[in-house]
Amino acid sequence: MVSTEQFDLSGKVALVTGGNGGIGRGIALGLAGAGAAVAIMGRNEDKNQSVLAELEAIGGTAMALVVDVTARDTLPDAVQAVANELGDIDILVNNAGRAHISGGILKETPEDWDAIIDNQLNSVFMLSKIVAESMAARNFGKIINIGSMYSIFGSSLVPSYSAAKGGVIQLTKSMAVELAEYNIQVNAILPGWISTDMTTDIEASEMGDVIVARTPAARWGRADEFAGPVVFLASSASDFITGASLRVDGGYSIA
């Protein structure tokens, strides 16, 4: 029997990287709405404080930290700061990321490649490793990694981004196998084309029209539409789901 209590995250602590805007903001607000105490990490203090105010308005406990997820030496202290203020992390959402449109491998520099792999893939490994140690000790945890349509499609314009997002899926599967014995479920969400500050120019362009025409839902997605999928994967309703990749794309990947 399905009960709404399965989706109640009261008493849980969630950390959302890149939680100060776009999809990350939608995720953070969704988790807070389900009862979780939520910490967000982001590089922009003004955006952090704006989302923190929204989280606190929901009525739960929240905090925001200025963190660059590629500064790996700072990550253990940042995670400990969350634990000190909110409690041990039960739910980790690896969402932070950026893309660099290089135009392909003939144009992309090794420095650009390294920067995107570090931002999109290495940070997922580092934060998951740090947080999973506490989760394993408590025999409970949910790790949710944010991939992309480029986790399954190749891209001639952003090869580093596509490679990193493909790596996120394989890392998700590998962690799911390893951490299952500790009652830690590891899953991924693959966003399609979503209206955010990062995609404004594309949505307004001719390419934006092509994307809508390709998408069975006949529209772009909204950042707040990630609240439901993330709450599901963070809740006890998904306790027997691990290593999965959930596409939230309006059917883009099947058309």
Structure description:
This protein is α/β, with parallel strands linked by helices. Helices cover 42% and strands 16% of the residues. The strands form two sheets. It has a seven-stranded parallel β-sheet, sandwiched between helices. Strands 7-8 form a two-stranded parallel ribbon. Helix 2 links the parallel strand 2 and strand 3 (62-66).
Q: How many β-strands, per DSSP?
A: 9
- Mind telling me the C-alpha Rg? 17 Å
> Per DSSP, what share of the residues sits in E-state strands of 2 or more residues?
15-25%
Report the mean per-residue pLDDT as an integer: 95
Largest sheet: 7 strands, parallel
Order of helices and strands: EHEHEHEHEHEEHHEHE
Structural classification = alpha/beta
Gap from first CA to last CA? 34 Å
Q: What form results from the Cα inertia axes?
A: globular
Low-confidence stretches: none
**Helical residues, percent:** 40-55%
How are the secondary structure elements laid out?
Layout: E1 13-17, H1 22-33, E2 37-42, H2 45-58, E3 62-66, H3 75-85, E4 91-94, H4 110-138, E5 141-146, H5 159-179, E6 184-191, E7 194-195, H6 200-203, H7 206-214, E8 221-222, H8 227-234, E9 245-248
Parallel strand pairs: 1-2, 1-4, 2-3, 4-5, 5-6, 6-9, 7-8
Question: Can you summarize this structure?
Answer:
This protein is α/β, with parallel strands linked by helices and 255 residues long.
